[in-house]
Sequence to fold (883 residues):
Amino acid sequence: MLAPGTKLGHYEIEDSIGAGGMGEVYRARDVRLDRTVAIKVLPSHLSENKDLRDRFDREARTISNLQHPNICALHDVGHEGGTDFLVMEHLEGETLADRLAKGPLSANELLPIAVQIASALEAAHKNGVVHRDLKPGNVILTRQGAKLLDFGLAKIAVSDEPTTNSTFTQMATGMPSAPLTEQGTIMGTFQYMAPEQLEGKEADARSDIFSFGALLYEMATGQKAFAGDSQASLIASIMTSQPQPITTIQPMTPPALDRLIRTALEKDPDSRWQTAHDVALQLKWIQEGGSELGVPKPVAAKRKGQTRTAWIVAALASLAAVAFAALYYMQPEPPAPQAIRFSIQAPKEVVSFGSPRISPDGTMIAFNGRGTGGSEQIWIRPLNANDPYPLAGTESAGRPFWSPDSRHVGFFAGSKLKRVPVAGGPPLTLCEFARGADGGWGKNFILFDGASGDSIMAVPVGGGEIKGATRIDRERASAGDGWPFFLPDGERFVFIRFISDGPDEVHLGRIGSMETKFLTNGESRLEYVHPGYLIYERGGSLLAHPFDAKRGEHTGDPFALTEGIGTGGSGLAHFSCSENGILIYTEGDDPGRKLVLFDREGRIVDTFGEPGLYGRPAISPDGKRLAYSQIAEGGGGGDIWIFDLTRRVPSRFTFNGASNNAVWSPDGSEIAYVAIESAVRTIMRKKTSGSVQPVPVREFEAQAIVGHWSRGGNLLLTDFGSDAGIDVASIAIDSPDSVTMLTSSPALEAQGQFSPDERYFCYSSNETGSFEVYLRSVDPEGGKWQVSTNGGVEAFWRADGREIFYLAPDRSLMAVPVDLTDDVVLGIPEKLFDAPVQRNINTRNRYCPTPDGQAFYCVSLIDSDRVPPTNVIVNWTAELDQR
Fold:
């Protein structure tokens, strides 16, 4: 026991609130903020376990982000003098368990409390937190309303002991749960567990809804929904029996509330209410009157007697209505349903937005986004809500794809294929595959893109062995297969076959067979939608191609649905369709760019050339010439140009239509770049004067992006694709077969830049879940330092090595002082200005500094703040009848 006056950090113990076998709870004073708090001291036998304590700390940080008026706030987690403790919001009131000991609640008393609890659950589930221990003892009734306690803290221990009361819940409350009977029988928490929890299956938001249903039942009747004399009989009751209807115990209960609770207590999670939001809406409807559905049976019967006379009058009036009905049926049929179009603006909570995918049931949109705090992950935007929420456990995720039942999202992150429930819960790793991407979810398998030039891969939906799902046709110069999408049977799928020397093709494949069927030519990802169309992009237009899924063949010619679809490399097209007639797409996000020179304060110094599709600027060592890539009007590949800053004249440097990533030699006499031909990437070097032909340095069949030419002149720093993923490698120009891997990890590590003395290099890595800039010694035995603090990409050195520049997630251009004289000393990152460059976090080289670091060439968007909206067409097939 802690005596009054004991101090734990800046908290001073005032009095003991309670004690139990799992710890003590105290009222304390936060002397720093001058407020009363509740201190829950964790028992030593748990706090001494470092793994448990670390896991608890991580979970506590998650719960501390739940800011809701009906959730008891977690203010702090502390460790002081060997004592671990929680600092909670101090609440005055009684627990719901204490209130229920006095008897059931009337409907007028129950409904406001129920709405508040449902609202708290909704807020938590949107943040990916599942309570897993909802019971009367975890609800406090205060003057301000109901407060939910210990939110999500049970979740850590559930996986270890799915059928026992959570250790961490006991740690947080400081009190053990009251047993149902004597020692040796089950604990009270069991009476509120969902069937899937008792079976040891993964619990999600719908498990909380079952527990909430049991809680509501007890509030309405004063009796527990399920009972048993032993652990076995109680579990059997929960698994197989239905509680007695509430209206037979409390006849004045609104029947609508009875139905709501019975739906919440369905054994099958799919048959319950699917979200706490839906439950809250139903409760509010009942609370507000609802209609006769919400009227207790005795009241409804009385009303029937009172209104009998009115029905007699109504019967007479109905005779007259017959004549009007005849006229009604002679009227023309009402117009057919019309398509409805609207746009959803990019949410203010994110600074980048991409790859929107609508769920098959048409209720949610998943997209890749980076929050203002720097974290990049998958976000979920319900169509019936205004605000999106990040999906926990999806940090550094690639493009999302949905499960057929709309309950899970699949994605790649850190060379691992994962699935995560959208209602909340930890992600499940299905397999590891370096450089895997995208995916399609079928009946028994998930298909995904392999490495560049590879076939489509398949893995069971529950995880397991990876197998090839297609076979590359090397004789036909196939450059790989990609973008699989399942047909309704969940066995057959369509995909793109990339052809090196001709147009790409759409093929039909089947799980378990390497035989494929050619369907048509096509160059973008595609989706099958009811009632029978393949949707894909061609030339910036979104096309619908009639298709018989059963016969596996086209039944007509393609036609355009809309124009201006946003696209990317290798067949990426930004559209998605649901199974119930909703189509979403984003427009091209490039209104035009210009080359602009900014000083360190963000003032425009100069603008160069006409607006165009510019990218990847690179300044010559003497600062007199600017190389950049430019895509010609009409699209296609790009070429490298050089702008003479003195004469203000641009000149074309490459002519193959597929060259990028120019880097200057240290004397400015040559440029190295990557040329792509027939899916083969070749690092080339070419003189910047005269008409000398380029000289190949090395060919790559996988990823290769040249990033920097060392000051010594013999090394090229390159983003190198290998079996481990994307890493930074050094290639010797005079011995190009010699590749030195400077990084090697499952994380994506790229954009390397040598320090002027070539002893170090800086680069970007997502090893922590978000991209950060790091500094590393070239010597494998040397050190490693993190340069950025809240996310960063695209690092460059000042020519004298005294500063490193990078872009933060919100596009702030940052500068970090560097001293390499004796040891590495890094200063505090300083924001210089907001760079008006593209938002896409995967866009490379959106700027470059001048050699002295006093100005910056930026590929500036003409409308830099524009993020394309997501366009939505509801009932899009209605427009087909007008064609």
